[in-house]
Predict the 3D structure of the following.
Amino acid sequence: MPAPEALVLLIGSELTEGRLRDQNGFFLSQELTELGFFVREVRLLPDEPSLLRAAFSEALATPARLLISSGGLGHTSDDLTADLWAEALGDVLQVSPALLAALEERFRQVGRTPLPYLERYARVPQRGEALPNPVGLSPGLWWERGLRVIVALPGPPAELRALWQEAVAPRLRDRFGARAPFTATLRTTGLPESRVSALLAEWEKRLPSAFRLAYNPSWEGVSLHLHAPAEIDPGLFEQQVQELRRLLAPYLYGEGAVSLAEAILHLCRQQGYTLATAESCTGGHLAASLVDVPGASEVFLGGVVSYANSAKETLLGVSAWTLADKGAVSEEVALQMAEGVRQRLGASVGVATTGIAGPTGGSPDKPVGTVWIAQVGPGAHRSAHRFIFPGDRQTIIQRATAAALSLLWRGLRQTLPQTSEA
């Protein structure tokens, strides 16, 4: 039985004009896939009545069993979603005295006077339902038309997610009873997409036709997403995943939602290593990526952003002679920065970045985008690598941060031959 199709409509001119970055499309696509839906399409739509009317009409003409919109449920003049869905479905909205009273009571509980615009949030469809919002004012709206379900959710991500978890996902699970497909995500670092593809070419030729493999390259590495329908033999799926693990083993740092920073901290934690960073061109981005991981304090001791040469000398003990003779962007300085932060913070491993992020400061010998990344420890391990990254200043910083994480993981693996899994 094929998976039921879902169509997602993300509504808001702030999204189509680039004033706000969408978070709901990613969340809904991931959640719907886990519930067993096939996401037919995700669309961005502005707050324009004619375009929304056309989009709703087109959505209702598709075979999708589930239509979900987010945004446009507020009380301002550009919040049109509820009215236009009701229009498209031949329904009308009316104020629910019970819902209005509940909203007014919420205002009084926090010491606020209820305002007239609350009536707009209390409107519910005559031929549908309102789904109470546990963290905001806008209720979700739910319609059933034959085999199809239409759901309108508020735009703020915190409200959408709370409504989804409490009211929408359980009802969809009961309503459709779809079996989730088999999925596996394997994350690699150290190889570009072309080389990963070449590594897997023969295996892909033998992959059963029901399977799908997707490549997702990033600056940290390449993630592989293996997908198969719920009807296949679970043993066959696990067999393919095991073969994929075997082929990717030297570059495989984790599976599922694990990040490269998490994998690094896990390796250090396993062996009792501690870590410190010294950054120039990345300006603290490397340290921030590690601190983003819960529990990082067990491993990460701290970092130094030594942007000026004087800070490199004072805080990290970099030689003034080396800075004058080799320049701040050099193998020698990168290694001294890594060793300096390792010694000063008492860490097992020190990692350093120094480079030219631009847009000025480059030279024929050291063009903009030149970055040195060094790692020192544990034991006698020392390494430094030179890169020339293309792109603007922010891109160079991001790529240098990702490269430092990748080199750190690979360096830790080399010093831990007994560790077979990240």
Notes: The first strand starts at residue 5 and ends at 11. The chain is about 40% helix and 25% strand.
